[in-house]
Structures are given as structure tokens and as C-alpha cells.
Design goal:
Blueprint (H helix, E strand, L loop, with lengths): L2 E4 L6 E4 L7 H14 L1 E4 L6 H11 L11 E3 L9 H4 L18 E8 L7 E5 H6 L3 H7 L3 E5 H8 L5 H9 L2 E5 L1 E3 L5 E3 L5 E4 L4 H15 L5 E4 L6 E5 L3 E5 L9 E7 L7
Parallel strand pairs: 2-3
Antiparallel strand pairs: 1-2, 3-13, 4-15, 5-13, 5-15, 6-12, 6-14, 7-8, 7-11, 9-10
Family: Belongs to the TfdA dioxygenase family.
Cofactor: Fe(2+)
Keywords: Dioxygenase, Iron, Metal-binding, Oxidoreductase
Length: 268
């Protein structure tokens, strides 16, 4: 019998009692919990790649990255050729903000953990929007924001070379609503490290607004910090949860195995 317990008042649920990861009733309960709580944790799930992938396929279509549906998250270049860019994940972000349809959900399993640091934090942009004063919600409605890969990388490399900046500028950008009015009637904020600027707003005012909303959304009451143990499985609703990795030393051998599920709802 599946049992659940809230991780934080605003988000997160710990699930216990899963015997069959591929049972349709289990999948449906996990999806329901994910929809309303945003982050789902199973301590000591100890899933191998095959089971994690099979479970993910029951959630939706799995993204294939460079020929593999399992993506290794590591700062070791021998394990991940994109290790340099993973340092950008130390900033609050939503995956896929430069894609018309963002990632629906992500699963992450801990293979090795860092002795110091390396936790993962989540923050609910549903709860953050709901708790804004009405006048602030009115101000945000109708505003549009340009998201870009370069915006997130400038936070990691503030003194990047002209060549690096030129490369970032070749990558896709996307303009989306600051307030995402969802098909189910809920609203969330589309913010984070990729949020470059508010369209048509003075640059200083734009930066102040985006930074202020991010500070609000990542307050403790909207946030859950997960301290990893080997074998833990965490799944999150990427469309309504900001997330970030807490810094850790590349020599720690921290290694996570990730699956990502294609999205179903386009940005507005």
C-alpha cells in the first residue's frame, strides 16, 4: 500500500510502500501527487537504469540525449562532455525555457553523493504566484520575458570572452509570458537564471522585477532542500518548480542518473 507524507507545507511529498514500479495504479498515484505537490521523493528506491527508464516511460515519452535516454549528471568531463555547462545548474532555473514546450518532468537517482554540498533545492512557482499581493499579480500579468542560455551562463562566467558570448548569442531565445496561465486554471511564474529581460521595460527596472520575483519564489516557505543518499529517487514537475544543485567539489565523484520526460503543454 502506497503511503505519502508532505515534505514541506507548500510542496513535496515522500512516497513509501511502492512494490511494483510499473503498476498503472502506482503510476497514476505518483502523477497525482506530482501534480499537486510538485516534488516526489522515494528514499532508498535503489532503481537500476532499466527500471528507472521503464518507470519514466510510463510517465511519458523520454527525451533521448546524444543516443541515450539516461543522462549522467557529473562534473567529471570523463563522464559528461557537458560538465562545464552543468555549473549553470547551481543557479535557480526551469529546464527548457527556450523550447516552445518545456520538459514535463524529470527523474533523478543518486548513484554517488558528495560528502559536502551537492544537495538539490526546489521552489514552487505556483505557491509563489498565489502568495503575491494582488497588485503585484496584476502588474505581472501581461508582461513577457525573453529567456536565453546566455543569461544563465553570464551568471556562471561574468568575465566570459567575446568568443564565448558570441557563441551563447547563436543559441535559441524565446519570449514567454511571465505568468503562465495553465490549462487546468492554475498560474505559475516563468522565472529563473534564463530570464534575460522583460520585453519593453527599462533594463534596470526589468532586472529589479525579475530578481525580486526570484527572491520571493525561493523563500524558505516555498522551498524544499533535498540532501541526497545513495539510491534516492526524486521526480519533479519541471513546469512549476524551480530547481538548483547546491555547489560541490568536482572531485567528490557525485553522480546522478537522470531521465527527462517530454512536455505536453506549451508556454503562453
Amino acid at each position: 500500500m502506497i503511503r505519502t507524507a508532505a515534505l514541506r507545507p507548500s510542496l513535496g511529498v515522500e512516497v513509501t510502500g511502492i512494490d511494483d514500479w510499473l503498476d498503472r495504479a502506482v503510476i497514476d498515484q505518483c502523477l497525482e501527487a506530482l501534480k499537486w505537490r510538485g516534488v516526489l521523493l522515494v528514499r532508498g528506491a535503489d532503481l537500476d537504469d532499466e527500471t528507472q527508464l521503464a518507470f519514466s516511460r510510463r510517465i511519458g515519452e523520454v527525451v533521448n540525449v546524444n543516443g541515450s535516454e539516461i543522462f549522467t549528471v557529473s562534473l567529471d568531463p570523463a563522464k559528461n562532455v557537458a560538465a562545464e555547462y552543468l555549473r549553470g545548474t547551481f543557479q535557480w532555473h526551469i529546464d527548457g525555457t527556450t523550447d516552445p514546450v518545456p520538459i514535463k518532468a524529470t527523474t533523478l537517482t543518486a548513484r554517488h553523493v558528495a560528502a559536502v554540498g551537492g544537495g538539490t533545492e526546489f521552489a514552487s512557482t505556483y505557491a509563489a504566484y498565489d502568495q503575491l499581493p494582488e497588485e503585484e499579480r496584476e502588474r505581472c500579468r501581461g508582461l513577457r520575458v525573453v529567456h536565453s542560455f546566455g543569461a544563465s551562463q553570464r551568471l556562471v562566467k561574468p568575465h566570459a570572452s567575446d568568443r564565448e558570448k558570441a557563441f551563447w548569442d547563436t543559441l535559441p531565445k524565446q519570449e514567454v509570458s511571465l505568468v503562465w496561465e495553465r490549462a487546468d486554471g492554475r498560474c505559475s511564474l516563468v522565472i529563473g537564471s534564463t530570464a534575460d529581460h522583460v520585453v519593453g521595460m527599462d533594463p534596470d527596472e526589468s532586472r529589479a522585477l525579475l530578481d525580486g520575483l526570484l527572491e520571493h519564489a525561493t523563500r524558505e516557505r516555498f522551498r524544499y532542500t533535498h540532501e541526497w543518499r545513495v539510491g534516492d529517487l526524486v521526480m519533479w514537475d519541471n513546469t512549476g518548480m524551480l530547481h538548483r544543485a547546491l555547489p560541490y567539489d568536482a572531485s567528490s565523484q557525485r553522480e546522478m542518473h537522470r531521465t527527462t520526460i517530454f512536455g505536453e503543454e506549451a508556454f503562453t
